[in-house]
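Hey L., structure's done. Input below.
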Amino acid sequence: MTIKPMMAWLIAGLCAGQALAAVNVRGVQFPDTEEVAQQHLTINGAGVRVKVVFDIYAASLYLPSKQSTAQGVLQTPGAKSVQAVLLRNLTADEFVDALVNGYRANNPEAEQQRYKVQLEQLETMMLGMKQAPKGSRVRIDLVPGIGTRIYLNGQRMGADIAGEGFYQSLLRIWLGPKPVDEELKSALLGQP
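Output:
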């Protein structure tokens, strides 16, 4: 094998290795890419939700193209995905309370009223879990033209929640002006 073909082979091998790479957050592996509604998404960032001194969950954000600002994420058209893996045992009530409190802190009253029914659907769906043990994987996808689709441990939960605007308001839990965790917000935005 001559030098040039060998270099091409090595470069191809390195590129293939990068495609299979994953982001590791506190022992949780998030793949570099995902697919939602037949749209290829790339990990934008990943980090940990910490409350006081406790690691609550590892989370990742997938987008069609990298974005470094909350506004950029919210204005990006197409599919999106937020994924969370619990790092401690929670009850469904604890998990839902945290989501709802984050939602209310980051969305104006008019927005909350506009998506009241959708938020209630989400609460009901999540409360159906009863328990959210350590290692549980929650995936919240935006399916363009449909709305929010939720998975628990790879299994689809309930019916889709209609409307793309509701998904945008959910993203503000992590990316809004009062995010549940400032360091997690920075991590999801791929900021150092």
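The chain has seven helices and eleven strands. The helical segments are 3-19, 70-75, 92-106, 109-114, 116-127, 164-175, 182-188.

-- N.
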